Amino acid sequence: MPDFSPVDLSVTWLGRTMPGCLYNASGVWCREEDELEAVRASAAAALISKSATLAPREGNPEPRYHRTALGSINSMGLPNRGFAYYLDYARRYDYACGKPLFLSLSGMTLEDNLTMLRTLAAAGLPAIPEINLSCPNVPGKPQLGYDFVATTEALNAFDQAWPGRYGVKLPPYFDQAHFAAMAEILNRHPRLAFVTCINSIGNGLVVDIDSEAVAIKPKDGLGGLGGDYVLPTALANVREFYRLLPGKDIVGCGGVRSGREAFMHILAGARAVQVGTCLYHEGPAAFARIAAELAELMQAKGYRKLDDFRGRLRTL
Ligand code: RRO
């Protein structure tokens, strides 16, 4: 007898249940209110705003995003409406819709991040901060997540400024010693409830043979890679932090363009899955398609819910 019972894609974490496991990666379809509303109105199960700085920013000069056959390269440079804009959206957001709202914060200084966290705390909203430790595209500013001393200092300060649960967006790591060192730091913070792995792979270079030129203008062409290029690196980061951070949730981000990659992320240990490059190219209709593909794949494998296979990646 075939099993026609519906597949359940809902996710319970952070003290709440959301109706599915997919939402947007910060930076994509979330800089303006109408974009956030389009994600909310789609089959996405949550939404996150563009990384905010205290003051609005124009970002880097164009062209600053380029699509390739295998994904994308970007050096947006943190264009955003400023923290007050996203806080205002969070104040008006209908949390009863069941889709959690995450606010991505990426202050230009630690003090700016603390100011945003304190202001958000004072507002008393159910919005959850995801603090970006990994923007690769502000000229002259290294990615915080690659500086373990600065990350330690930042997390200690976040704990003082923010009373609730929060998450961080990490850059990709490429060495097991770095996974271990970062995990040891993250494990000192019980209210750090989730880590999002990964941000784009920073400072790649896409070259156009015809013009013999780089593809984007900022930083002489260097930019963060997304899409197919990053899937194995993203999966490795999800897997390693899933094993090294017991009690914390991992949000998978990187290379998800169908139900298959979403399944891989969850198998590696992801609680929820963000979609970046694919959302940029396809728009919010991507969420319904990917969710349907994931449900179909689960059905074919006899899984009814994500807990049936989350983290159960087999080794040989
Ligand atoms: O705005 C950007 O250039 C950007 C950010 Br803040 C980030 O975290 N990751 C990325 O690929 N681009």
UniProtKB/TrEMBL annotation:
This protein's pathway reads: Pyrimidine metabolism; UMP biosynthesis via de novo pathway
Keyword Transferase in annotation = no
EC code(s) of this entry? 1.3.98.1
Q: Where in the cell is it found?
A: Cytoplasm
- Kindly list the biological process annotations in GO that this record carries: 'de novo' pyrimidine nucleobase biosynthetic process; 'de novo' UMP biosynthetic process
Residue ranges occupied by any Dihydroorotate dehydrogenase catalytic domain in the UniProt entry:
9-298
Q: What is this protein called?
A: dihydroorotate oxidase (fumarate)
Organism of derivation: Chromobacterium alticapitis
